[in-house]
């Protein structure tokens, strides 16, 4: 399978790169310090069509493939992971479940505003005792007089409390069956919960180590009532549909990881060429040059891994293993490159105004979010037959 980009894909990547360098990068430190989501930048991203890249034209999208989204996410992540994950989660996690599992009425109602970047959606799967472990889900929903009544909590939900958030999709237990061995299997179903629905409370923003600009909140559902028509997909298919979303999302997340690793590489190359110690650039020292060479190798491997997975999505081929490989390789590349870049910069790399320092803070969550490193290893091992 060829991993060469088409002329159109190259143009998109270059266009987003220029936007990232000229608009996002100059504002990144200010917004990181304020811990504010830059709505003006999101609006410009919407005007560029970034939020609608993988969606059909009839729903307000750009009609591109999933790789197009990944290319945009990578370029943004070079300079600001928070902005990149706002796009990645807004499209891959927030809107994609509606495209994949929604009714035609749901698609027509929600996708156009999401594709234009005028609205954001959250993806409500994780709970205190549930995430990868679906059996730990405690949020419940039951039918009463033509409405679903939802009770429970969710945590670590991205894009759930912005001023343009319009809904979250959530999984809830809608029934239980007893297996032959006596164990209980929970029936999980997904629902669309519009923002502002009575009983739906967005908790205070988390005080995070990194991703300061990204919006992340806990959610509470206290007798939240939504119409029966707000069920997303078939009853009992909530977790299965969300797992499909996560598999796709991991590919875009891997692109984010690759962009972070690339950003650290670019900063290190620049610094190694211009920072003089003992009368010559530090890049002339072999141990610095070799460290940067390894950074380049990690970026190359990470990019090929997510290209491969994204191509398979576009071709309609199985990609679960490739998605986990891309996420594993990419997240480790980002973390390792952030560590090496900080070392190359020395004291300058410990200052938050330096992009390298922000990558160092931000990159650890790449080994945790959208499936930990251990979950990726588990998926890969299972796909190998273990």
UniProtKB/TrEMBL annotation:
Names of required cofactors: FAD
Domain Acyl-CoA oxidase/dehydrogenase middle, first and last residues per copy: 123-224
Presence of keyword Oxidoreductase: yes
Superkingdom classification of source: Bacteria
MF terms (GO), sorted A to Z: acyl-CoA dehydrogenase activity; flavin adenine dinucleotide binding
Keywords: FAD, Flavoprotein, Oxidoreductase
Acyl-CoA dehydrogenase/oxidase N-terminal domain boundaries: 6-118
A Pfam entry, by short name: Acyl-CoA_dh_1
Domain Acyl-CoA dehydrogenase/oxidase C-terminal: start-end pairs: 236-384
Family listed: Belongs to the acyl-CoA dehydrogenase family.
Name of the protein this chain belongs to: Acyl-CoA dehydrogenase
Species for this entry: Cellulomonas fimi
């Amino acid at each position: 399978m060829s991993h060469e980009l088409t002329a159109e894909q190259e143009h998109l990547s270059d266009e987003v790169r220029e936007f990232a360098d000229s608009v996002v990068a100059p504002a990144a430190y200010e917004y990181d310090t304020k811990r504010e989501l830059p709505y003006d930048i999101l609006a410009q991203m919407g005007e560029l069509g970034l939020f609608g890249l993988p969606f059909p034209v009839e729903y307000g999208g750009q009609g591109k493939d999933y790789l197009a989204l990944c290319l945009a996410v990578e370029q943004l992540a070079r300079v600001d992971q928070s902005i990149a994950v706002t796009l990645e989660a807004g499209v891959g996690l927030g809107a994609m479940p509606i495209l994949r599992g929604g009714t035609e009425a749901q698609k027509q109602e929600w996708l156009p505003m999401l594709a234009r970047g005028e609205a954001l959606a959250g993806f409500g799967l994780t709970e205190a005792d549930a995430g990868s472990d679906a059996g730990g889900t405690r949020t419940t929903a039951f039918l009463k007089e033509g409405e679903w009544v939802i009770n429970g909590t969710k945590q670590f939900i991205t894009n759930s409390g912005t001023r343009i958030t319009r809904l979250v999709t959530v999984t809830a237990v809608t029934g239980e069956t007893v297996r032959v061995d006596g164990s209980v299997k929970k029936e999980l179903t997904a629902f669309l919960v519009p923002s502002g629905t009575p009983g739906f409370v967005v908790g205070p923003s988390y005080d995070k180590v990194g991703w300061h600009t990204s919006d992340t909140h806990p959610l509470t559902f206290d007798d939240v009532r939504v119409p029966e028509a707000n069920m997303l997909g078939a009853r009992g298919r909530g977790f299965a549909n969300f797992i499909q979303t996560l598999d796709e999302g991991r590919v875009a997340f891997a692109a984010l990881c690759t962009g972070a690793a690339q950003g650290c590489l670019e900063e290190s190359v620049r610094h190694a060429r211009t920072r003089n110690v003992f009368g010559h650039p530090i890049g002339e020292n072999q141990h610095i040059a070799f460290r940067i060479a390894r950074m380049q190798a990690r970026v190359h491997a990470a990019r090929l891994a997510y290209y491969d997975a994204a191509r398979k999505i576009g071709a309609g081929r199985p990609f679960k293993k490739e998605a986990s490989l891309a996420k594993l390789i990419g997240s480790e590349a980002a973390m390792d490159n952030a560590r090496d870049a900080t070392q190359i910069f020395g004291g300058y790399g410990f200052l938050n105004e330096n992009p390298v320092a922000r990558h160092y803070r931000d990159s650890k969550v790449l080994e945790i979010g959208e499936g930990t490193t251990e979950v990726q290893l588990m998926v890969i091992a299972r796909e190998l037959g273990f």
